[in-house]
Design goal:
Helix content is 41%, strand content 18%. By secondary structure, the protein is of the alpha/beta class. The chain folds into two domains: 151 residues, Alpha/beta knot; 65 residues, tRNA(m1g37)methyltransferase, domain 2 (Trp Operon Repressor, Chain A, Orthogonal Bundle), CATH 1.10.1270.20. The strands form three sheets. A five-stranded parallel beta sheet has the order 2-1-6-5-7, covered by helices on one side. The protein has a two-stranded antiparallel sheet with strand order 3-4. Bound molecules: adenine. The site of adenine has 11 residues, from strand 5.
């Protein structure tokens, strides 16, 4: 999978690939990362990329011309590129999007800075537009990294153990059961005793009960999906 980050600030993105799982995936040639700076495509004398908003409003908006030219050149080079814009005004990114996007060959993330991107660019070039949550970031770079990370771990070979994908939260309506590591007792607190006894069917049903508890507490609307699904399965 190839990822292209279309950003004015590639240094904000680069560090993330310099360690851990994604670094290994790049070394194994499962991922490749490149960057496209819209400023390099600006036709203005001083490489300007933004201006005040037409019709009023606070802050600066990214101009269409540098982004049109940058994205045209990207599409000319690879017509299959899937272009994603990051903005808080969009559908929320979810686990099923991560799994679906992991099958693409090339994804480009277009990050806005300032007050946003001229809407005409989004209308013309976006294959999809995502928000990563109901809060405002200073730009799309973090959002594009969040999506890139979560797509990448769904690409075959990126995680060592593909089992770990299937029991995770959001793969089912229930949140994942709590995990414990060694030692079995720490700070006078033991892991749940059933986990220690080795009866796997009892451990499974305890984990299910704990998952239901966590889901009821943190995400009650998810629990409703789970109980509806259970009653269909009967
Ligand atoms: N840019 C600024 N805030 C954002 C958000 N919440 N999601 C995606 N892109 C953004």
């Amino acid at each position: 999978m190839r990822f292209t980050f279309v950003t004015l600030f590639e240094n904000l993105v680069k560090g993330y690939f310099q360690d851990s799982i994604l670094k290994r995936a790049i070394e194994k040639k499962l991922l490749s990362i490149d960057y496209l700076d819209p400023r390099e495509y600006s036709s203005s004398k001083h490489k300007k990329v933004d201006d005040t908003a037409v019709g009023g409003g606070a802050g600066m908006v990214m101009n269409p011309q540098p982004l049109y030219d940058a994205l045209d050149s990207l599409k000319k080079e690879d017509e299959d590129v899937h272009i994603i814009f990051l903005t808080p005004v969009a559908k929320p990114f979810r686990q099923n999007d991560a799994k679906r996007l992991a099958k693409k060959s090339h994804i480009a993330f277009v990050s806005g800075r300032y007050e946003g991107i001229d809407e005409r660019v989004i209308e013309k070039y976006a294959d999809e537009v995502f928000s990563i949550g109901d809060y405002i970031l200073t730009g799309g770079e973090l959002a594009s990294l969040v999506i890139c990370d979560s797509v990448s771990r769904n690409i075959e070979g990126v995680l060592g153990n593909s089992d770990s994908l299937s029991v995770e939260s959001f793969e089912t309506p229930l949140l994942e059961a709590p995990s414990f590591s060694k030692p079995k007792v720490y700070d006078d607190t033991s892991v749940p005793s059933e986990y220690l006894k080795g009866n796997h069917s009892k451990i499974r049903s305890l984990k299910l009960a704990l998952s239901e508890c966590k889901t009821k507490f943190f995400r009650p609307e998810q629990l409703l999906k789970h109980t509806t699904r259970k009653s269909y399965e009967k």
